[in-house]
């Protein structure tokens, strides 16, 4: 390991950076949208709808586009999924609606549902029209903790149903991972913040940023003060490699992406010349691609299992590979190598799967690198809840089909609950379902009082 | 190699593909380009009588129905007959015919309904040595308000009268172009024949309003805020034209009268279909206006290759061949039965067959089997209507399978394979010699 660690900012010109971080997808124009919409067969009990976690009526909205009514299409979308705009940008459609589309089965070319959804929602946002109005006030007040997709979707539906909502958010900005986590080239032009504004435009929702559950107030205080509580806390922690992660040059992918999303000058972000990413999910793909787009020369994703087991979809993998990222498999991190107290490389053991377990083959490999990103999973920080109050399952909050927790008057959804898919769209659905359940419970309660 | 040349009421043409009287045949420049591209003949854009030129609108004169990807399905116009001086047209016709002797050149005419007017123009056209004339009794807008075009074509007596004048005052073959804006196309065709017509051509355009601009609430195409109906043509009108052509072909009164078919012809297939229904030549307007003259190359090669494949040496071998197979409903066999069958390997499970049959037909397609999404025809319910096959997006996925003779139709409980038409059917109170079992009301 002779090479000196090389981590610095400004590897590319501002023009190159602007190009690298521009919109991943070219949005459809009006004509393209109508041609794309025409391909939809208007299926009966359409499989694409079943595959959409928020059950957007896809054949209907696509037909509305085809007939020249994009605003009607946007209403159809947002009625089911208030983050239809962001989902159009970030959903792995290739494993959701578009995978189920019958034209995928027929000819390997599904209706471009994601792009059409974006066309419709962009058309709406361009008009600045607010489609939603707060429902007649019920006099009930709900606390939502966490202003990510789950929390905001819940707050919005509650407001539409007439309940007053206060959202507590630990960070400075609302939006959750839409604002801090999604790859920069998927949500360009400040879309995340604009969408939050649109959602809050319904009225009846107060957002208090910089307010953290577990630090500034307790869950018991919330259940005392409010008629119901929704927890959309996301995953605050990250897994460690356990190989001396505090060595200079070893970074947490999620934190780095958050920095990248928040900076107003990408040229100031330091990035290694040779970068290694450990992990196999969307986060690994995103940090690898963005490292390459910041100007890293060599970026290698190393995953301990095979391509099929990677959480990132084939399409996501392809995006990274097109960016020039090398993906390697069946290598388990064994040891960090350092020079002068800084990272200089990482050694791996070759592994194979035997009876479902990974075992070393006895061979090993060393990859020299200047910077290493951990992207091996996020964890739920249960400590914020207060010990033992709420039943957990596999380290996350346990909920029933209506997203009720074990604690009365407390619902939860999004990444922080067990059994979820860790997708924006799934978080939105959780928030929506929880709001419907909360509404039902509150209205039943009101009926009893009356 | 098949011989594509035809002889149509005495006029020779190297192939049956003609351009209809319309903008593509407006002047020598276009017609020469068409001949160069390979068109067998043209019908020159309709000439009117000598005098001040025709004035067209200077607003849009066309409208269209588009598919989402902007293919032209239907086309409409409010153009009048030629707006060029008669003298110039006649001079050009003469020159073009001289330079292109092997191509057909027919001159379309429309003058006021007096014998003098027709006599005058016939003489001048004859001098051009054009091959024949076509009487425009079809233009449905503008000219018809002045007592010409469709105003004549809609009155069989006028059709007969003018045709007779033309035969009397000229030696040229006379083709009578019919308007479809009439309830029984056989009547004007019969009138044309009585008047001595050598052939009929049809259809001219169909009265049409193309749409309404929902911002201005003005129908379109519109001129300075006002619109008028136009003439509809293009692919959308082909089935209407085919019906009218075949009505004339199988009418005993007009059977054998040469027909030049017009209406929605875009490809060799369209042309071949019209020819099997009795057309000796075909005329094209919209397709040429949409794609240019080169389409004739596809038509020539397509027709020739099809004829070779079928062993047809010349057009005579198949012109009119499908006419005997067209009949009245009452002659169809009511003992014949088909059932829809879904090829499960081809099915992509869109569910459209199910919902079409369920909502609007006979509730004969299941949507689920063993708890799985699955589409299958229930023979007990299927009437064989074909709707599912029509709406299925996969070619050949749903086929209509005939029941074998002797089999029992699970829907009616009756044996199939016999041959009874409505005229012999016991359910027909008027049947002279009813035979076999009647169809009963369903049990429930
Ligand atoms: C790098 C990365 C890329 C991703 N890319 C995609 C993608 O392309 N497509 C996709 O569908 N999904 C993607 N995901 C997943 C997706 O972002 C999440 O599934 C989704 O954001 C979950 O929403 P949530 O509301 O549950 O949580 P979050 O978005 O994490 O929001 C939780 C919010 O709660 C706040 N909070 C947490 N604790 C407290 C507390 N104690 N008090 C107050 N507030 C608190 C947080 O600050 C945060 O704002 C990605 C995830 C990551 C990490
Ligand atoms: C713009 C336009 C102008 C036409 N002008 C005439 C005309 O002057 N004389 C005539 O007999 N038919 C005229 N027609 C009718 C065509 O000759 C033809 O009968 C009709 O368009 C149907 O054929 P198609 O479907 O191939 O277009 C015109 C059609 C169009 C579209
Ligand atoms: S499955 Fe595909 S074709 Fe069918 S409705 Fe959905 S998008 Fe349209
Ligand atoms: S043929 Fe008609 S009745 Fe039979 S299954 Fe198809 S749509 Fe239904
Ligand atoms: S319409 Fe055709 S493809 Fe669609 S479900 Fe029916 S048989 Fe299958």
Automatic annotation (TrEMBL), chain A:
Query: In the Enzyme Commission scheme, what number(s) does this protein have?
Result: 1.3.1.1
Q: Does the keyword Flavoprotein apply?
A: yes
The chain positions of domain 4Fe-4S ferredoxin-type read 31-61
List, alphabetically, the SUPFAM superfamilies matched.
Answer: alpha-helical ferredoxin, Nucleotide-binding domain
Q: What class of enzyme is it?
A: oxidoreductase
Under Pfam families, the record lists: Fer4_20, Pyr_redox_2
| InterPro entries to which the protein is assigned, alphabetical | 4Fe4S_Fe-S-bd (IPR017896), DPD_II (IPR028261), FAD/NAD-bd_sf (IPR036188), FAD/NAD-binding_dom (IPR023753), Helical_ferredxn (IPR009051)
Gene Ontology molecular function, alphabetical: dihydropyrimidine dehydrogenase (NAD+) activity; iron-sulfur cluster binding
The catalytic activity, as recorded, is: 5,6-dihydrothymine + NAD(+) = thymine + NADH + H(+); 5,6-dihydrouracil + NAD(+) = uracil + NADH + H(+)
The question of whether Oxidoreductase is a record keyword is answered with yes
Q: Which cofactor does it need?
A: FMN
Q: Which UniProt keywords apply?
A: Flavoprotein, FMN, Oxidoreductase
Query: According to its UniProt entry, what is the function of this protein?
Result: Involved in pyrimidine base degradation. Catalyzes physiologically the reduction of uracil to 5,6-dihydrouracil (DHU) by using NADH as a specific cosubstrate. It also catalyzes the reverse reaction and the reduction of thymine to 5,6-dihydrothymine (DHT).
Quaternary structure annotation from Swiss-Prot or TrEMBL: Heterotetramer of 2 PreA and 2 PreT subunits.
Please report the name of this protein according to its UniProt entry. Answer: dihydrouracil dehydrogenase (NAD(+))
**Organism source for this protein?**
Prosthecodimorpha hirschii
UniProtKB/TrEMBL annotation, chain B:
Q: Which SUPFAM superfamilies match?
A: 4Fe-4S ferredoxins (SSF54862), FMN-linked oxidoreductases (SSF51395)
Enzyme class, broadest EC rank: oxidoreductase
CC per GO annotation: cytoplasm
Which segments does the entry list as coiled coil? none
Q: Where is this region: Disordered?
A: 418-444
Q: Which PROSITE patterns match?
A: 4FE4S_FER_1 (PS00198), 4FE4S_FER_2 (PS51379)
> What residues does the 4Fe-4S ferredoxin-type domain cover?
338-370, 373-403
Q: What function is annotated for this protein?
A: Involved in pyrimidine base degradation. Catalyzes physiologically the reduction of uracil to 5,6-dihydrouracil (DHU) by using NADH as a specific cosubstrate. It also catalyzes the reverse reaction and the reduction of thymine to 5,6-dihydrothymine (DHT).
Description of how the protein assembles with itself and partners: Heterotetramer of 2 PreA and 2 PreT subunits.
What is the official name of this protein in its record?
A: dihydrouracil dehydrogenase (NAD(+))
- Origin species: Prosthecodimorpha hirschii
């Amino acid at each position: 390991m002779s090479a000196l660690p090389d981590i610095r900012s400004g590897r590319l010109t501002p023009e190159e950076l602007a190009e690298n971080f521009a919109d991943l997808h070219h949005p459809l124009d009006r004509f393209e949208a109508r041609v794309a919409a025409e391909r939809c067969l208007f299926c009966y009990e359409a499989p694409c709808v079943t595959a959409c976690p928020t059950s957007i009526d896809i054949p209907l909205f696509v037909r509305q586009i085809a007939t020249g009514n994009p605003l009607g299409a946007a209403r159809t979308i947002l009625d089911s999924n208030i983050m239809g705009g962001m989902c159009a940008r970030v959903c792995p459609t290739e494993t959701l609606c578009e995978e189920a589309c019958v034209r995928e089965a027929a000819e390997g070319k599904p209706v471009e549902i994601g792009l059409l959804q974006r066309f419709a929602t962009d058309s709406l946002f361009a008009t600045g029209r607010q489609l939603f109005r707060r429902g007649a006030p019920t006099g009930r007040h709900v606390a939502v903790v966490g202003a990510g997709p789950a929390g905001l979707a819940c707050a919005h539906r509650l407001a539409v149903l007439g309940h007053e909502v206060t959202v507590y958010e630990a960070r400075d900005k609302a939006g959750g991972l839409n604002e801090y986590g999604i790859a920069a080239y998927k949500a360009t032009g400040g879309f995340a913040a604009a969408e939050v504004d649109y959602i809050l435009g319904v009225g009846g929702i107060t957002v208090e940023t910089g307010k953290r559950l577990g630090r500034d107030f307790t869950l018991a205080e919330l259940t005392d003060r409010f008629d119901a509580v929704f927890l959309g806390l996301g995953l605050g922690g990250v897994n460690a490699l356990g190989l001396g992660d505090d060595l200079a040059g070893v970074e947490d992918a999620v934190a780095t992406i958050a920095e990248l999303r928040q900076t107003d000058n990408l040229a100031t972000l330091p990035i290694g010349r040779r970068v290694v990413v450990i992990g196999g999910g969307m986060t690994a793909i995103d940090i690898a691609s963005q490292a390459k787009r910041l100007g890293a020369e060599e970026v290698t994703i190393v995953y301990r299992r095979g391509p099929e087991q990677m959480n990132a979809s084939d399409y996501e993998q392809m995006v990274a590979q097109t960016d020039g990222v090398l993906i390697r498999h069946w290598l388990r991190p064994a040891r960090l190598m350092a020079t002068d107290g800084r990272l200089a490389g990482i050694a791996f053991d070759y592994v194979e799967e035997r009876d479902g377990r990974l075992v070393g083959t006895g061979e090993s490999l060393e990859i020299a690198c200047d910077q290493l990103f951990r992207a091996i999973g996020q964890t739920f920080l249960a400590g914020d809840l207060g010990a033992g109050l709420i039943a957990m399952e596999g380290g996350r909050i346990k909920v029933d089909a209506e997203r009720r927790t074990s604690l009365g008057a407390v619902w939860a959804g999004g990444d922080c609950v067990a059994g979820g898919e860790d997708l924006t769209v799934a978080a939105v659905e959780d928030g929506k379902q929880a709001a419907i359940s909360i509404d039902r419970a509150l209205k039943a309660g009101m009926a009893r009082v009356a | 190699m098949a011989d594509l040349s035809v002889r149509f009421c005495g006029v020779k043409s190297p192939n049956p593909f003609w351009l209809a009287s319309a903008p593509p045949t407006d002047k020598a420049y276009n017609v020469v380009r068409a001949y160069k591209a390979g068109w067998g003949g043209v019908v020159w854009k309709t000439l009117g009588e000598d005098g001040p030129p025709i004035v067209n609108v200077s607003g849009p004169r066309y409208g269209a129905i588009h598919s989402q990807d902007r293919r032209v399905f239907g086309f409409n116009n409010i153009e009048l007959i030629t707006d060029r001086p008669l003298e110039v047209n006649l001079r050009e016709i003469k020159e073009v015919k001289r330079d292109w002797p092997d191509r057909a050149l027919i001159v379309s005419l429309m003058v006021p309904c007096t014998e003098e007017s027709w006599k005058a123009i016939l003489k001048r056209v004859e001098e051009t040595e054009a091959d024949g004339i076509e009487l425009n009794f079809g233009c449905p807008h503008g000219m018809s308000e002045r007592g010409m075009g469709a105003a004549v074509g809609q009155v069989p007596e006028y059709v007969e009268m003018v045709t007779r004048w033309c035969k009397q005052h000229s030696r040229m073959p006379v083709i009578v172009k019919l308007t479809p804006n009439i309830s029984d196309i056989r009547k004007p065709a019969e009138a044309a024949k009585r008047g001595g017509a050598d052939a009929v051509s049809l259809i001219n355009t169909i009265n049409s309003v193309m749409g309404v601009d929902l911002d201005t609430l003005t129908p379109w195409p519109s001129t300075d805020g006002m619109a008028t109906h136009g003439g509809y043509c293009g692919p959308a009108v082909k089935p209407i034209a085919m019906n009218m052509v075949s009505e004339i072909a199988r009418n005993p009164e007009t059977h054998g009268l040469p027909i030049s078919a017009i209406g929605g012809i875009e490809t060799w297939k369209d042309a071949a279909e019209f020819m099997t229904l009795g057309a000796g030549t075909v005329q094209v307007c919209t397709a040429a206006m949409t794609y240019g003259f080169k389409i004739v190359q596809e038509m020539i090669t397509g027709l020739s290759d099809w004829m070779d494949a079928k062993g047809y040496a010349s057009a005579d071998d198949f012109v009119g061949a499908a006419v005997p197979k067209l009949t009245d409903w009452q002659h169809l066999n009511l003992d014949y039965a088909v059932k829809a069958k879904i090829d499960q390997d081809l099915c992509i499970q869109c569910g459209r067959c199910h919902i079409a049959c369920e909502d609007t037909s006979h509730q004969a397609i299941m949507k689920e089997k063993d708890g799985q999404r699955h589409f299958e025809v229930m023979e007990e319910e299927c009437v064989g209507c074909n709707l599912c096959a029509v709406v299925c997006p996969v070619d050949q996925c749903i086929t209509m399978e005939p029941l074998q003779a002797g089999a029992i139709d699970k829907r009616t409980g009756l044996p199939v394979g016999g041959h009874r038409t409505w005229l012999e059917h016991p359910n027909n109170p008027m049947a002279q010699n009813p035979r076999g079992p009647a169809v009963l009301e369903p049990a429930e």
